Structure formats: C-alpha cells, structure tokens
Inverse folding.
C-alpha cells in the first residue's frame, strides 16, 4: 500500500507493477529489460518515503525507486542476490530483509541483513539458529534437512519475528542481537485440518499423476489427518501488529472465506488478539495505519479465476486485545 491509498502488485508476466485505489483508478509502470526502470525478475514491492515505490529485482540484484505515480527515479545496484524484503514497509534509509549467503564450502545459509540504500553496503547481518534447536515441531515437514530460522519480520525498534515449523510457533527476538529469543509462542489455528474440499482437491492431484511418475505415499485418511500449515500472506505493520493467513489452501481450491490471525507484539512476546474472516482466497496483503488491503482470488464461474484488491477499515482493532 502507498501513503496515497493505492495498493500495488507485481504483474510478473508483463514485467510491470500495477497500482489501483479503492475507486478502481489504476496506473502501471515498468517493462522487460535491464535499463533504468526496467525489470528482469521483479519479486518485491517496498513502500518508500514521501510516497515513493521501491521494486526489488532478484536477477539484476538491485532496487529501483519510482515516484508515487510510477516515474523512474534511481536505483541501488549490488543488493545481495535473491534478497527477500522483510515487508512492504522495509524501506527507509536502509533496507531490511533476508538472503541466501553461499559459504566457502558451497553450503548456503539464510542471513537476515540491513543494507544502506545509498551505497548497497551491508551494515548488519546475522544467521540465526536451526528451528530444532529452539522448538519441537509436531507438523510434518518434507525431507530430512534441518531448517534454519530463515525469513525474519523486522520490527522498527530492532526486533525480529520468525515463523517456524510452517506456522506452529512464533519466535520473537526483541533485540535482534540477543543470543536467545525473548519468547516462543504456539500459534492459534482456525480450521487446522483439511475440509472435504481440500481432501477432494488433494485426491484429484494425486490421481492426476501419470503411471510411472512420482506419487507421494498418501491415502485419504492420511490426508484428513495432516494438519494445515501457515503458508501464505503475512505482514508486520507499523503498529506492531502481525497479520498472517492462518492456513493456505493450495491447488485449485478457492475457499469462500479466508482467516487472518492477528497478534500484538509486546516487549515480552507476541499476544494473540483475534482472527478475521474475509471473503475469497487471500494471496497477498498489506496494512498501513488503519487500512487493510488484501489481494484476493475469487471464483467467478469462468475458466480463469478473478484477482482484485479489497480494502477494509480496521480502526476498531487498534486497541483491542
């Protein structure tokens, strides 16, 4: 979301950014290429000062800055490869986010970093522990590999929040340089287990695998018993509220409702506040002040589902616990 009230999304097929406001007025900018104002792999949008828009390009390792109307202004090259911004509000004089850092032996680790936007220089970075060193995951995870505390959500006064075990726990560092986390909180789930729609979609996917192809060794009862995970849109806003789609409906299922869990961040840890229901399938969201914008996918009965942005006034949630 921009300060002027528009919400911007990346249209990867056309290498551009599309911005729209609650009145359905829209504008677009960007094109394929490596020149000023062009993209080869745009992967993140950032909210800058004075209404500016930043766009992260993975392949070019740079952040390009645009005016609030989409006019190219400047770019910062030399950004760490495959940088994932911490969130839409992660851009000020510095950029905070996470990236994969390759070690001398060819191994790689997930590093959280802060980068000076004037020079592209890393001013702070840290690799955090493995999940298994902090929590005991009960949600099944694929593969035998240990998982790091990877992508962190940076809070403006120096804190970092991690989602672990596909959403089973929230790990909070009030001080990003502290050796131990301040708090570890078990998440609240809404409709944690698959619905009949989910089960049917999973079975259709399994049955569509051709003979001789790799097919996971799952039956219908195992699908029903496997808990859903937090795997979807999340944002940490400017009022220290953490918003997360409480489960992700993968595949071709488009639910009538999505659930968004909200936590208030305190110095001692995240506190669950409430769960919102919003229409359709949430695929992206941002919160600015007391406005929530959600990018949703909805079934309109056609061959291709519709995507649009819905806006909500969430002022009543500000003081609620």
């Amino acid at each position: 979301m921009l300060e002027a009230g528009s919400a911007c999304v990346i249209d990867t097929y056309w290498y551009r950014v599309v911005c729209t406001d609650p009145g359905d007025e829209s504008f677009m900018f960007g094109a394929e290429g490596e020149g000023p104002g062009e993209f080869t792999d745009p992967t993140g949008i950032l909210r800058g000062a004075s209404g500016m828009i930043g766009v992260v390009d993975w392949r070019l390792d740079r952040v390009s800055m645009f005016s609030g109307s989409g006019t190219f202004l400047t770019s910062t090259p030399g950004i760490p490869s495959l940088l994932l911004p911490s969130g839409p509000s992660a851009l000020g004089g510095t950029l905070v986010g996470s990236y994969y850092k390759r070690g001398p032996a060819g191994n790689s680790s997930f590093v959280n970093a802060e980068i000076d936007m004037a020079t592209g220089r890393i001013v702070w970075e840290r690799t955090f522990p493995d999940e298994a060193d902090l929590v005991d995951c009960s949600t099944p995870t694929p593969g035998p590999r240990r998982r790091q505390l990877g992508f962190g959500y940076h809070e403006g006064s120096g804190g970092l929040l991690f989602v672990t075990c596909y959403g089973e726990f929230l790990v909070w560092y009030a001080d990003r340089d502290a050796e131990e986390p301040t708090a570890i909180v078990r998440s609240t789930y809404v409709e944690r287990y698959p619905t009949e729609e989910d089960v049917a979609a999973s079975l259709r996917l399994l049955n569509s695998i051709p003979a001789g192809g790799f097919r996971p060794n799952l039956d219908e009862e195992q699908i029903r018993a496997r808990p859903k995970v937090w795997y979807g849109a999340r944002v940490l806003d400017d009022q220290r509220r953490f918003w997360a789609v409480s489960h992700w409906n993968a595949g071709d299922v488009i639910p009538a409702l999505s659930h968004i869990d909200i936590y208030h961040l305190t110095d001692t840890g995240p506190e669950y506040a409430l769960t919102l229901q919003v229409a359709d399938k949430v695929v992206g969201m941002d919160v600015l002040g007391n406005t929530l914008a959600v990018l949703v996918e909805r079934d309109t009965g056609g061959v291709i589902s519709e995507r649009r942005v819905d806006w909500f006034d969430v002022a009543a949630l500000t003081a609620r616990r």
